[in-house]
Amino acid sequence: MSDDKSKTSELSRRGFIKVGAAALTAANMPMFFMKDAWAAKDFRNNPGNAGTVKFGFNVPQTGAYADEGADELRAYKLAVKHINGEGDGGMLNTMKPLTLKGNGILGKKLEYVTGDTQTKSDAARASAKRMIEKDGVVMITGGSSSGVAVAVQGLCQEMGVVFMAGLTHSNDTTGKDKRRYGFRHFFNAYMSGAALGPVLKQEMGTDRKAYHLTADYTWGWTQEESIKNTTEALGWKTTAAVRTPVGAGDFSQYITPVLNSGADVLILNHYGKDMINSLTQAVQFGLRDKQVNGKNFEIVVPLFSRLMAQGAGENIKGILGTTNWNWSLQD
User: Fold this and answer.
1) C-alpha distances in angstroms, 27 versus 42, 95, 160?
2) What confidence score (pLDDT) does residue 320 get?
3) Among residues 27, 150, 223, 237, which one has the fewest Cβ atoms lying within 10 Å of its Cβ?
4) Residue 183: strand, helix, or coil
5) Which pLDDT value is given to residue 331?
6) Rounded distance, CA 315 to CA 300, Å?
7) Backbone angles phi, psi at 109, to 5 degrees
């Protein structure tokens, strides 16, 4: 009798171990695409047997970063053509090995809807929410403003939809404000600072005084922090760091104090039209023609794009900064 009880006890123990292990495995499985009432085998806006699947392209079509938004949107539309196999295949014919088959996504034709973030976080969230609830998108992409990217990424996390950040340079996007459903490909402010350090040392030396004008939101803050960490490690001193509103347009009131600050370098932590305007106005104020502390006055733009360089025209020549990879750049 005692042997039977012993066997039963052992079987129960083994059974418990098996059941417990299964429960533990299930508990630790990634709940990908799950949100609130959505079943474990389903995900938000699952197209099911439909022949199409939909993405949301949420970009600034108005506001200070509208030029970057228009560029993003052109690229997204071209990507849809590649994925759907429209035309002659274009770039697809040059890519080997190739995962894309030109038959959509898992055989479903890709469709898309667009939204205007207005370079404002609240407007971007409202646009993304409409895409998810009304249009039934399974993925949202966009950005240009890191504040927008962080806001939309948080919404997508709440609603169980993937967010693929198109353009976001703040350290916080995948740092302090990271979310499980959020992904980025763009380099961050820390990388810009690290890349610029050796170049600034070579071109400007280790005895400099820097004056920062900084866009007053998450990207500007982390860009300023990253560049300060780099320059101060070189031996530079930070004379002042002044926050400026996004979309200010006229930066005269912020540039005037630089003239008598004792700084010999102006660092513009601005982007989009704001960078074009602040750089143009700094040049008009004669900063690049000045000599301070026995040195030629310099301007640094930690992050700029091809569009910003075009907008700034002659004023961008000789300005050090970082940019995303571009096939036309030799350096």
Assistant:
1) 17, 41, 18
2) 95
3) 27
4) strand
5) 66
6) 12
7) -65, 135
Domain covering 52-184 in this structure, CATH number: 3.40.50.2300
Same CATH fold assignment for domains 52-184 and 189-322: yes
* Burial readout 48-75 (b: 16 or more C-beta within 10 A, e: otherwise): eeeeebbbbbbbbbebbbbbbbebbbee
Distance CA 107, CA 66 (A): 33
Q: How far apart are CA 302 and CA 299, in angstroms?
A: 10
Query: Bridge partners of 110?
Result: 53
Residue whose pair of structure tokens reads 């690229």 in the numeric block: 75
**Which CATH number does 189-322 carry?**
3.40.50.2300
- Indicate the pTM of the whole model: 0.78
What pLDDT is attached to residue 29?
A: 36
User: Is the separation of the CB atoms in 314 and 274 below 8 Å?
Assistant: no
Residue 64: its pLDDT value, please?
Answer: 82
The domain spans of the chain are: 52-184, 189-322
- Largest Cα span, the chain: 101
pLDDT of residue 7: 43
Closest C-alpha to 158, from 179, 127, 139, 136: 179
320 three-state secondary structure:
strand
Which portions of the chain are predicted below pLDDT 70?
1-41, 87-92, 331
Phi and psi angles of residue 132, each rounded to the nearest 5 degrees, phi first: -75, -50
Sheet holding 52-59, edge to edge: 109-116, 52-59, 139-143, 162-167, 182-184
DSSP for 94-161, written as a single string: G-SS----SS-BTTBEEEEEEEE-TT-HHHHHHHHHHIIIII--SEEEEESSHHHHHHHHHHHHHHT-
Model pLDDT, residue 87: 67
Could you give the CA distance from residue 29 to residue 259 in angstroms, rounded to a whole number?
A: 59
